[in-house]
Amino acid sequence: MQVSSKDMAMRGEVYEGIRTSLARGHFSPGEKLVLRQLAEQYGVSLTPVREALYRLVVEGVLTQEHSRSVRVPVLSKQRVIELRDMRVALEMLAVSKGAELATSAEIAKLERLTSAVEAARKAGNIVRDNEKVAEFQFALYSASKMPVLLRHIEMLWLQTGPYMRLLHPTFISYVQQVRPSWRREICQAFRDRDVATARRLIETDVFESLSHLAELVGASEMMRPME
Questions:
Q1: Other Cβ atoms within 10 Å of 96 Cβ, number
Q2: What does the alpha-carbon distance between residue 226 and residue 222 come to, in Å, rounded to a whole number?
Q3: Residue 225 confidence (pLDDT)
Q4: What is the per-residue pLDDT for 4?
Q5: Could you say which DSSP state residue 68 is in?
Q6: Per residue in 176-206, pLDDT tens?
């Protein structure tokens, strides 16, 4: 049976929509993804949702249990550290190229998103904060003009996105105290074509945030009952 271009586009939209929700922290670690709820959310039948979830399971982003239910994985401390080290390397490469190639329009967009993050934090809106942080980071990496690299970064983000809420309030408060303007600084580094500063700023942010998550996950592991 041939699939129409309209159906293909719809299936792609569902898949990308779920990916975006994962990256922005809309789902929690261990949360079950319910087919009917997602179908209602996207206004589609169960089939494109089932296909999207299957793709994400194959890609290692989601896990499927014996009951065939699909969940957001619960990461170990070791896994978070592995993801941290991979993200640091890839995201430093992306900002290196971005600092060299970013257009004025791209930098202006980064500055607008920086303001949006600041406004969300001032209002205490964690959901919007996480959304705008993800938008900022991917706009930052898109400036590299390296789509294959960007796709790899996205795959790593999908695994850590559900943990973004755990950065509130402790880690976010820490960042607000010690480097409150780092996003504005990286925007300026892009304007100045200052690769070294851009690399340093993103390395610090990714390393510190995921190190904090690793410690939280490690503490949670210690509290789990022995099987």
A1: 16
A2: 9
A3: 45
A4: 72
A5: S
A6: 999 999 999 999 999 999 999 999 999 999 9
pLDDT of 121-145, one tens digit each? Answer: 999 999 999 999 999 999 999 999 9
Q: Read off the amino acid at residue 129.
A: D
- Tell me the C-alpha distance between 72 and 29, whole Å: 5
Own/partner contacts of 170-176, CB < 8 Å, gap of 24 or more, are 170/212, 171/208, 171/209, 171/212, 172/121, 172/129, 175/205, 175/208, 176/121
CA distances from 206 to 12, 32, 42, 86, 91 (A): 29, 27, 32, 10, 8
Copy the structure tokens of residue 134: 């993800």
- Three-class secondary structure of residue 70 per DSSP: strand
Backbone angles phi, psi at 71, to 5 degrees: -130, 160
Q: Give the confidence band of 211 by pLDDT, cuts at 50, 70, 90.
A: very high
In this structure, what are the phi and psi dihedrals at residue 102, rounded to the nearest 5 degrees? -60, 135
Q: Which pLDDT score, from 0 to 100, does residue 102 have?
A: 98
Longest dimension (CA), the chain: 59
The runs of H, that is alpha helices, within 67-192 are: 77-101, 104-123, 126-142, 147-160, 170-178, 182-192
